[in-house]
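Still learning folds. Look over my entry:

…
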Amino acid sequence: MRARNLAILISAAFLLSSVLVLASDDSSAEASITLTDGRGKTCKLYEPAQHIVSVGKGLTMTVIDLGYVDSIVVCDKYSNVATDGRFKKLNDNVATGKTYAGGSLWSIPAMKNEIFDKADSEQGGTFDKEKDVVMITVGSASTTSTGINVLNLESELRSAGFRNVLIWFEITEYDEIVDFVRQVSLAMKGEVDGVVFDMEYVKDHIASELGDTEKRKAFYVTYSGGAFKVGNKGSLGTSLALAAGANVVTIDASKEPTYAANLTDLIGTYGTDTVVFADGSMASARLSELRDKVGNDVKIVVMDPLWNNFDPESKDGIWTFACALYPELFSGDVPTAPLADDPNYLGYSLAGFGVATVIGLAGTFYIRR
């Protein structure tokens, strides 16, 4: 009798733990997943997407970081970067034909044909127009020629039955990158991935540690149109510097997001303790020229190009910036969010507590019998 009672109580304990864990999991089949793109347009999935069309190097890096490289059926040719080891698995998939990567925002017809091919089930296509997602990052306004071409592509896809098409035009703030990664993780996982909490935590941690510390001078610099240009509000590089706690000395409400400036004069005005964050996509010759212009006493941080993009790597960027600006406060690896920030943490904790409590009561009952 005692053994049977103990078995019943232990079964109840496991049942309780199952109920509590399920209570912490809000990704049930009945609950739809709502995705919101950069325009505020929404679509709903009733389960995570099995396949994705990923247009934009930062977007593709995000899908890879989340662990879903094998879900990419089509990407743009600029995502298929053979020189960056982080894209090695994607390179392999492109080489075998599992992923197509022949088009881009500047060769949309080629990309459209690849998307249609991957959605043609009669020809072995695996993309489901109803359940899977097309995600496109443009990097320029919808009113530009590229933006208009993308909107035309969206119209063609929707007319052909592609239900879930999401587009992001300009992303200019770190917080917008965080939300972007949140949307991609919802699409592929059905829940917010822990990397989103890490991205939020790094920024909050930097701000908390800085407190009332005097902000140190810095600016972002890139090269285009035959000239060095510095970052302003509206420049993603500047947003990363601000998230790292910098006093960005090139912010000027009267100027464009990036604008030409005399770098030697800037250092002369603000001093050699000003930190320069250099766009990593510049050629080495340009970086040497940059050094000549700012002098040998100025700290230059060369950015990984993926820091200045729409992906989780941006958190590595703001941490590196903070370490360069405030080495007495920040050093070492990029910090991660505490476990308690996991949305399932409370549910799992309650489940564990419930199991321990019920088994403990069962043991007490058994002994007393």
